[in-house]
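Lab notebook, page 48
Experiment: co-folding of the full assembly
Goal: obtain a model of how the components sit together before planning crosslinking
Operator: M.T.
Materials (sequences as entered):
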Amino acid sequence: MIVIMKVNASQEAIDKVQVEIEKLSYSTHLIEGATRTVIGVLGKKPLRGKQHLQSLPEVSDVLEISTPYKLASREWKPKDTIVTVGPARIGGDHVSVMAGPCSIESYEQMKTVGEAVKAAGGHLLRGGAFKPRTSPYSFQGLGVEGLKIINQVGKEVGLPTVVEVTDTETLDVTTEYVDMLQIGTRNMQNFTLLKAIARQGKPILLKRGMSATVKETILAAEYILNEGNDQVVLCERGIRTFVDHTRNTLDVSAIPAFHRLSHLPVIVDPSHAAGKRHKVLPLALAGVAAGAQGIMVEVHPNPEVALSDGPQQLVPEDFLDLVERVRVVAKAVGKELD
Amino acid sequence: MIVIMKVNASQEAIDKVQVEIEKLSYSTHLIEGATRTVIGVLGKKPLRGKQHLQSLPEVSDVLEISTPYKLASREWKPKDTIVTVGPARIGGDHVSVMAGPCSIESYEQMKTVGEAVKAAGGHLLRGGAFKPRTSPYSFQGLGVEGLKIINQVGKEVGLPTVVEVTDTETLDVTTEYVDMLQIGTRNMQNFTLLKAIARQGKPILLKRGMSATVKETILAAEYILNEGNDQVVLCERGIRTFVDHTRNTLDVSAIPAFHRLSHLPVIVDPSHAAGKRHKVLPLALAGVAAGAQGIMVEVHPNPEVALSDGPQQLVPEDFLDLVERVRVVAKAVGKELD
Amino acid sequence: MIVIMKVNASQEAIDKVQVEIEKLSYSTHLIEGATRTVIGVLGKKPLRGKQHLQSLPEVSDVLEISTPYKLASREWKPKDTIVTVGPARIGGDHVSVMAGPCSIESYEQMKTVGEAVKAAGGHLLRGGAFKPRTSPYSFQGLGVEGLKIINQVGKEVGLPTVVEVTDTETLDVTTEYVDMLQIGTRNMQNFTLLKAIARQGKPILLKRGMSATVKETILAAEYILNEGNDQVVLCERGIRTFVDHTRNTLDVSAIPAFHRLSHLPVIVDPSHAAGKRHKVLPLALAGVAAGAQGIMVEVHPNPEVALSDGPQQLVPEDFLDLVERVRVVAKAVGKELD
Amino acid sequence: MIVIMKVNASQEAIDKVQVEIEKLSYSTHLIEGATRTVIGVLGKKPLRGKQHLQSLPEVSDVLEISTPYKLASREWKPKDTIVTVGPARIGGDHVSVMAGPCSIESYEQMKTVGEAVKAAGGHLLRGGAFKPRTSPYSFQGLGVEGLKIINQVGKEVGLPTVVEVTDTETLDVTTEYVDMLQIGTRNMQNFTLLKAIARQGKPILLKRGMSATVKETILAAEYILNEGNDQVVLCERGIRTFVDHTRNTLDVSAIPAFHRLSHLPVIVDPSHAAGKRHKVLPLALAGVAAGAQGIMVEVHPNPEVALSDGPQQLVPEDFLDLVERVRVVAKAVGKELD
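Observation: model returned without errors.
Model output:
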């Protein structure tokens, strides 16, 4: 941390800052510039007291120079983490494919999709059982019934499953039926849920909040790792911007940013970013080209009658085509899908 | 709802859209323009099937022309709602003042602040007991101990209290000790929590999500009203933008927007928007000038040693000065603080 | 400037940075922290070489700790600048009112508006002669004919005039007819125009770019001051955000930010931010309450037939009412409109 | 266009809207819904009067259902436009590579880069002669001297050239020396410059404004096409968002959006979006994977001493590597670089 004093700060104010830093058990180092004094804060302990120092008299600014996370940081663990979900391995040079409908609607629907995902070479089967919906009047999911369906279909087609958890009330039952637990974009900073889900010990798919920075996303992962669970996959799914041609703006630059700062695997969700079917393929390819280690895509046997997010779900044939193309681009950037 | 077909859409596609609309039990009305056909969807029932229609062949777009909320809408209840918290009445031509520290730290701290808030003419005492923090290594609040402190101080100084609820686990105990329950910006779309909190029957302060639109915020309130609880106050607390001179951008234009669309009271939180002390006063005045029916301000006896958000908390004297100025501006716009 | 080396940077890399800093004629100061080395860059000269240092091996980041502008900075000139346009004085504790139609359409229209602005106690008459329009098919303004009209009406009603300049081609003729020259939001970083307009020696109204930071806006003003013209008024007119209930988001927090960083007067334009008539009044009041030293409002005798921006223009009676209310709020915050 | 009346609008207001639409020489079509009346506006003429209709009494909203541009629209010209710059052909299934330094600094620098670009298989040589800089104290470019250098080097290495034009004053001289003229992000809505540059008759590279929507960008191109020049290439170069890990957020979803709405070629500029060297490669690959028909990359023989934008410029060897990888990804998505 570095404390920047105001231009011509008084000696008294400078002394006060030094005393306060020492109270925090750090040592200090003064640089007297031509117009300002700058005070370095030295010590090995995790960073504390930034806000306190910022509020002292004649302090202009306090800058952090170390990262606020540790367990999720690549500085502390340079090697890529590989997350294992049953037979699926996510991370490294592998491109994983997770696919399934937005909402689980029936056994027949899931079975059709599950077979399509398996046939295309996909690795995980996804589906929503408890749906967080902007309006209270929208379809809210099949609940436990949905969990049972995806569990059964997953076993029948031979794919591990991933389902979003929306609250602690349904966490235990979801954990019982599902192989990987997902935190949705609206819950990325639901810290109670993050801690509770971490303790289940299952692998976790953590979606970036739609207005979260890369650093805040890694800090959300840090909440999970801090509970002793390091099986976390980050997912870029689009951010909120002024743009009106798409639902959310897929931030492909977050992929190399995550890779540089953290050892955790990173996948993209082109379906939620796009909001419309014709953008899913280009965004999936862009994500993989930028270094994503997987994609999560929505597939529905008949999107025209889907109970949620119809416009962005692919039919099985289009999904098959998408996986073929992703495979080619993955290879072009030195990765492998199979 | 209006369905806009693509330029030169086929008769077959147009027929298909009409059939699908009728399946949803609406009637249709065709407009054949020079280059496009547009289909009106008529009916009194709540809107359904937008996404379905959007996914039909040769449909260019589907536009909503009615609002997706009802209970929170001013179209359905033109008169302002007044929310009552003990002796405090929030809404109408009254400007309410809610104040207190970011975190409850001790009885002494709360007592000092509580007396200052009361002396300044404030109406509610706030304080955080369970703190949602970006980093797992930051101070997370005193918990139930904090609830007991604010409960006691509230009684001693004669002010009703408002505390944020962060999860369903701590909801019952918070309800036991507190007069008004707050939903924070990160939980605005935590729908499980919205429904659970609504059922407690206590008045609710709902903060706008930092990347939520005005419409999404009203829909979050609709979740609460739909559970039979209409004692909801909306709070504008700043949105996330590209701007770097402030923590969040206080969207004062949301205040007249909320008033036009909804009958619920609207207050502003200048402290969280500003992030820095010197911006709290101008933002509080701006909010009230734009029509806010209250302010929520952070006050701390000694911000330099605050355990969270020190830089944005006011000392009691500055808070007293702020209330005086807010009173004058309130009067200038035809409202009253006392 | 402070150069932050990567964790465990080599001595060779550290030496290299020091050599490069010295080549730029600064001196250096080393802080060896527990995990990183940080190098202070000391010297009185204007900042140079940040990007160069950032690109050196094993450098993690380079932080600026001084401001990149000087002439526009309050650190260099603590006292408020007052800008004089004929009898009007903009800045300090005065609230100036600039008003007029979006586009100058005819002598009759301008005369009606000019008399209304004068009657309401306004200080400057505005009007657009050359209109920057998003579409090439929209009305582009009356051009020089418009300049002659506003010039004549200004003289007849006794108000100085302000008109936007959109290019260097029309700069001389505009300067001939107009008292204050305006730089529009789309031209805030048209540096050629900034320099050319500065040299005309007339007072300048500089609108913040719709995606410009506060710092970038002050740097745009610095371009003008650097040409020897310090008669610059800054104008906050709304920024582009994800919000969809308003055309642009009026950033009231920019007002105290500008005041803290610069001595130049700051006004707000609620009309362009709002985009709709019913939001103009609350935004004007909010701006003044937050410390703006003036407002610029669009007025049209008959907005229903306006050739541009009809929905946001006020009729004269509503404008009169707005000025009355602004006067009251101005007084409430210790300023004066008359 | 569709006019949506308020709930329970009066017959008088509805009649008034119909009269006004007919005055604009459109015909009308009424839909009387359960709670609202909606009025269709029919006619083949370009859209006019939206703002006027929006300002009529009891009108809730006016929605456009046709596009405001025509010449740039794919609805009017379904086939891809190919832009020709000397031997280079931009558009269709070809991926073009434009590269060179941010600023032209010397003949030696340009020669080194020009040879590297040619050797890597690049198609155009870029370089800045007049630099738009945020600060008046930053390096502003070599000017005409720079134009002469890039002209000479372009001839020597056999590559057509592209240089940004920042104002009309330097337009003629730039046109004299350069093969393709670039409009920078800050000038995308400098309409005077758009029209003047269009009339030079040379091919134009139009960069998206950093806060421009896709539609506004196409409208800027429409200004050029409307002057009779259809040799326009669009360039996505990153938009301004809340994100802080990158300079601008490359909006890859804009690429399929542009392709769907317009027949003009689309390229990406990963260098300006990234701001840092290590993100240039992933963003270039992502852009091409998403359908971009070219890339523009900054290359400098010695970025450590570059006079502008050092941190984002590639050294020739890294550039060569980048082109190799782009070639592979281009092939993977059915395009060709050579």
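Interpretation: Chain B touches chain A at residues 20, 46, 51-52, 54-56, 68-69, 132-137, 166-169, 186-187, 189-193, 210-211, 216, 219, 222-223, 226, 240, 277, 303-306, 308-311 (CB under 8 Å).
Next step: discuss with group before ordering constructs.
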